[in-house]
Amino acid sequence: MTSRTALITGGTSGIGLATAALLHRTGYRVAVTGSTAESVEAARAQLPDEVVVLRADARSLADTDRVVGELRERFGSLDVLFLNAGLVRGLPIEDYDEATVDDLLAVNFKGQFFTLQKALPLLNDGGSVIFTVGIGVTRGIGAGSAAAASKGAVLALVPSLALELAPRGVRVNAVSPGAIATPIWSKFGMSVEAAQAAMGGRIPFGRLGTADEIAEVVAFLASPGASYLTGENIVVGGGSGLSA
Known about the structure:
Helix content is 42%, strand content 17%. It is of the alpha/beta class. The chain has one domain: 3-Layer(aba) Sandwich (Rossmann fold). A seven-stranded parallel sheet has the order 3-2-1-4-5-6-7, with helices on both faces. Strand 1 (5-9), helix 1 (14-25) and strand 2 (29-34) form a beta-alpha-beta unit.
Protein backbone atom coordinates (compact mmCIF):
# COMPACT_ATOMS: atom_id res chain seq x y z
CA MET A 1 0.00 0.00 0.00
CA THR A 2 1.32 3.46 -0.93
CA SER A 3 2.32 5.62 2.04
CA ARG A 4 0.27 8.68 2.83
CA THR A 5 1.95 11.97 1.97
CA ALA A 6 2.14 15.31 3.76
CA LEU A 7 3.46 18.82 3.14
CA ILE A 8 4.22 21.01 6.14
CA THR A 9 4.96 24.67 5.53
CA GLY A 10 7.07 26.27 8.23
CA GLY A 11 8.29 22.78 9.01
CA THR A 12 11.94 23.40 9.84
CA SER A 13 11.53 24.31 13.52
CA GLY A 14 9.16 24.15 16.47
CA ILE A 15 5.70 22.72 15.88
CA GLY A 16 6.28 22.06 12.18
CA LEU A 17 9.49 20.15 12.83
CA ALA A 18 7.88 18.07 15.59
CA THR A 19 4.93 17.27 13.33
CA ALA A 20 7.21 16.24 10.47
CA ALA A 21 9.09 13.85 12.74
CA LEU A 22 5.86 12.37 14.12
CA LEU A 23 4.22 11.87 10.73
CA HIS A 24 7.38 10.27 9.37
CA ARG A 25 7.47 7.87 12.32
CA THR A 26 3.89 6.85 11.59
CA GLY A 27 4.63 6.01 7.97
CA TYR A 28 4.02 9.21 6.01
CA ARG A 29 6.21 10.49 3.24
CA VAL A 30 6.83 14.05 4.37
CA ALA A 31 8.05 17.29 2.85
CA VAL A 32 8.67 20.48 4.81
CA THR A 33 9.49 24.05 3.85
CA GLY A 34 11.56 26.69 5.61
CA SER A 35 12.28 30.27 4.67
CA THR A 36 16.01 30.53 5.42
CA ALA A 37 19.09 28.59 4.44
CA GLU A 38 19.98 28.21 8.14
CA SER A 39 16.62 26.70 9.10
CA VAL A 40 16.68 24.34 6.11
CA GLU A 41 20.20 23.16 6.96
CA ALA A 42 19.27 22.64 10.62
CA ALA A 43 16.14 20.66 9.70
CA ARG A 44 18.07 18.42 7.32
CA ALA A 45 20.42 17.62 10.19
CA GLN A 46 17.58 16.82 12.60
CA LEU A 47 15.03 15.04 10.42
CA PRO A 48 15.44 11.58 8.84
CA ASP A 49 17.01 11.56 5.40
CA GLU A 50 13.72 10.47 3.82
CA VAL A 51 12.01 13.75 4.76
CA VAL A 52 12.19 16.26 1.90
CA VAL A 53 13.35 19.68 3.15
CA LEU A 54 12.82 22.59 0.76
CA ARG A 55 13.61 26.26 1.01
CA ALA A 56 10.60 28.44 0.20
CA ASP A 57 9.38 31.88 1.26
CA ALA A 58 5.64 31.95 1.96
CA ARG A 59 5.53 35.45 0.47
CA SER A 60 6.66 34.17 -2.92
CA LEU A 61 4.14 32.58 -5.27
CA ALA A 62 7.02 31.52 -7.48
CA ASP A 63 8.50 29.58 -4.55
CA THR A 64 5.13 27.98 -3.93
CA ASP A 65 4.86 26.94 -7.58
CA ARG A 66 8.33 25.41 -7.37
CA VAL A 67 7.48 23.45 -4.21
CA VAL A 68 4.23 22.12 -5.67
CA GLY A 69 6.02 21.11 -8.86
CA GLU A 70 8.69 19.24 -6.93
CA LEU A 71 6.10 17.42 -4.82
CA ARG A 72 4.20 16.43 -7.95
CA GLU A 73 7.37 14.77 -9.21
CA ARG A 74 8.36 13.18 -5.89
CA PHE A 75 4.99 12.19 -4.40
CA GLY A 76 2.44 12.45 -7.22
CA SER A 77 -0.26 13.56 -4.78
CA LEU A 78 -0.83 14.76 -1.22
CA ASP A 79 -3.03 13.50 1.58
CA VAL A 80 -2.25 16.13 4.20
CA LEU A 81 -1.45 19.83 3.90
CA PHE A 82 -0.37 21.43 7.19
CA LEU A 83 -0.17 25.19 6.63
CA ASN A 84 2.00 26.15 9.56
CA ALA A 85 4.28 28.91 8.23
CA GLY A 86 3.82 32.17 10.07
CA LEU A 87 5.25 35.40 11.42
CA VAL A 88 4.86 36.82 14.91
CA ARG A 89 5.30 40.51 15.68
CA GLY A 90 4.50 41.30 19.29
CA LEU A 91 4.04 45.08 19.15
CA PRO A 92 1.65 47.62 20.67
CA ILE A 93 -0.59 49.20 18.06
CA GLU A 94 1.34 52.48 17.96
CA ASP A 95 4.54 50.67 16.97
CA TYR A 96 3.19 48.92 13.86
CA ASP A 97 4.07 50.44 10.52
CA GLU A 98 2.63 49.67 7.09
CA ALA A 99 5.54 47.48 6.01
CA THR A 100 5.20 45.26 9.10
CA VAL A 101 1.46 44.82 8.65
CA ASP A 102 1.93 44.06 4.95
CA ASP A 103 4.56 41.46 5.84
CA LEU A 104 2.28 39.79 8.38
CA LEU A 105 -0.55 39.55 5.88
CA ALA A 106 1.79 38.35 3.11
CA VAL A 107 3.05 35.41 5.17
CA ASN A 108 0.22 34.59 7.57
CA PHE A 109 -2.72 34.98 5.23
CA LYS A 110 -1.78 35.40 1.57
CA GLY A 111 0.99 32.78 1.71
CA GLN A 112 -1.26 30.14 3.29
CA PHE A 113 -4.19 30.92 1.00
CA PHE A 114 -2.18 30.60 -2.21
CA THR A 115 -0.25 27.55 -1.01
CA LEU A 116 -3.58 25.79 -0.56
CA GLN A 117 -4.84 27.05 -3.91
CA LYS A 118 -1.77 25.82 -5.77
CA ALA A 119 -1.49 22.51 -3.89
CA LEU A 120 -5.19 21.69 -4.16
CA PRO A 121 -4.86 19.83 -7.49
CA LEU A 122 -2.40 17.47 -5.76
CA LEU A 123 -4.64 16.89 -2.73
CA ASN A 124 -6.40 13.55 -2.81
CA ASP A 125 -10.13 13.32 -2.22
CA GLY A 126 -10.63 12.59 1.47
CA GLY A 127 -7.49 14.56 2.35
CA SER A 128 -6.92 16.88 5.28
CA VAL A 129 -6.01 20.58 5.37
CA ILE A 130 -4.85 22.00 8.71
CA PHE A 131 -4.03 25.63 9.45
CA THR A 132 -2.04 26.86 12.43
CA VAL A 133 -3.89 29.85 13.88
CA GLY A 134 -3.11 30.55 17.55
CA ILE A 135 -4.93 31.11 20.80
CA GLY A 136 -4.51 34.89 20.58
CA VAL A 137 -7.04 35.07 17.74
CA THR A 138 -9.97 33.97 19.89
CA ARG A 139 -8.81 34.71 23.45
CA GLY A 140 -6.81 37.89 23.00
CA ILE A 141 -3.17 38.87 23.18
CA GLY A 142 -1.60 41.70 25.16
CA ALA A 143 0.51 43.06 22.32
CA GLY A 144 0.41 41.89 18.75
CA SER A 145 -3.03 42.88 17.51
CA ALA A 146 -2.07 42.97 13.82
CA ALA A 147 -0.33 39.60 14.06
CA ALA A 148 -3.45 38.11 15.66
CA ALA A 149 -5.65 39.73 13.01
CA SER A 150 -3.58 38.24 10.18
CA LYS A 151 -4.11 34.80 11.69
CA GLY A 152 -7.76 35.65 12.33
CA ALA A 153 -8.17 36.05 8.59
CA VAL A 154 -6.96 32.46 8.23
CA LEU A 155 -9.45 31.26 10.83
CA ALA A 156 -12.22 32.98 8.86
CA LEU A 157 -11.30 30.83 5.86
CA VAL A 158 -11.83 27.54 7.66
CA PRO A 159 -15.65 27.17 7.69
CA SER A 160 -16.06 28.42 4.13
CA LEU A 161 -13.32 26.15 2.79
CA ALA A 162 -14.78 23.25 4.76
CA LEU A 163 -18.07 23.76 2.93
CA GLU A 164 -16.41 24.28 -0.45
CA LEU A 165 -14.23 21.17 -0.24
CA ALA A 166 -16.73 18.86 1.47
CA PRO A 167 -17.96 17.38 -1.84
CA ARG A 168 -14.44 15.98 -2.28
CA GLY A 169 -14.38 14.67 1.28
CA VAL A 170 -11.53 17.08 2.09
CA ARG A 171 -11.56 18.17 5.72
CA VAL A 172 -10.42 21.68 6.68
CA ASN A 173 -9.59 22.47 10.29
CA ALA A 174 -7.39 24.74 12.38
CA VAL A 175 -5.24 24.18 15.45
CA SER A 176 -4.66 27.07 17.84
CA PRO A 177 -1.67 26.53 20.12
CA GLY A 178 -1.36 28.48 23.33
CA ALA A 179 2.02 29.29 24.88
CA ILE A 180 4.37 26.60 23.58
CA ALA A 181 8.02 25.97 24.48
CA THR A 182 9.60 26.57 21.06
CA PRO A 183 12.34 28.86 19.71
CA ILE A 184 9.69 31.46 18.84
CA TRP A 185 10.22 33.11 22.24
CA SER A 186 13.55 34.47 21.03
CA LYS A 187 11.57 36.79 18.75
CA PHE A 188 10.19 38.37 21.91
CA GLY A 189 13.66 38.71 23.40
CA MET A 190 13.26 35.97 26.00
CA SER A 191 14.22 32.37 26.57
CA VAL A 192 11.79 29.48 26.96
CA GLU A 193 12.69 29.43 30.66
CA ALA A 194 11.85 33.11 31.03
CA ALA A 195 8.55 32.57 29.22
CA GLN A 196 7.72 29.71 31.58
CA ALA A 197 8.48 31.87 34.59
CA ALA A 198 6.43 34.77 33.23
CA MET A 199 3.41 32.84 31.97
CA GLY A 200 3.24 29.52 33.77
CA GLY A 201 1.25 30.93 36.66
CA ARG A 202 -1.46 32.21 34.30
CA ILE A 203 -1.99 28.83 32.65
CA PRO A 204 -4.27 26.40 34.55
CA PHE A 205 -1.87 23.52 33.87
CA GLY A 206 0.98 25.66 35.23
CA ARG A 207 3.37 25.21 32.32
CA LEU A 208 4.02 25.90 28.66
CA GLY A 209 2.96 23.26 26.18
CA THR A 210 5.38 21.37 23.98
CA ALA A 211 5.72 21.17 20.22
CA ASP A 212 5.19 17.41 20.47
CA GLU A 213 1.81 17.95 22.14
CA ILE A 214 0.65 20.14 19.26
CA ALA A 215 2.04 17.66 16.75
CA GLU A 216 -0.14 14.93 18.26
CA VAL A 217 -3.25 17.05 17.69
CA VAL A 218 -2.22 17.79 14.11
CA ALA A 219 -1.60 14.09 13.49
CA PHE A 220 -5.08 13.32 14.80
CA LEU A 221 -6.67 15.92 12.51
CA ALA A 222 -4.73 14.37 9.61
CA SER A 223 -5.84 10.86 10.46
CA PRO A 224 -8.92 8.79 9.59
CA GLY A 225 -9.83 9.13 13.27
CA ALA A 226 -10.94 12.69 12.48
CA SER A 227 -12.93 11.66 9.42
CA TYR A 228 -16.12 13.43 10.60
CA LEU A 229 -14.40 16.60 11.81
CA THR A 230 -14.30 19.65 9.56
CA GLY A 231 -14.65 23.41 9.85
CA GLU A 232 -13.35 23.42 13.43
CA ASN A 233 -10.66 25.21 15.42
CA ILE A 234 -9.00 23.09 18.12
CA VAL A 235 -7.48 25.22 20.91
CA VAL A 236 -4.54 23.52 22.62
CA GLY A 237 -3.53 25.81 25.46
CA GLY A 238 -3.61 24.02 28.79
CA GLY A 239 -6.80 25.87 29.74
CA SER A 240 -5.47 29.36 28.97
CA GLY A 241 -8.23 31.95 28.84
CA LEU A 242 -10.73 29.92 30.84
CA SER A 243 -12.36 31.51 33.86
CA ALA A 244 -11.41 30.10 37.26
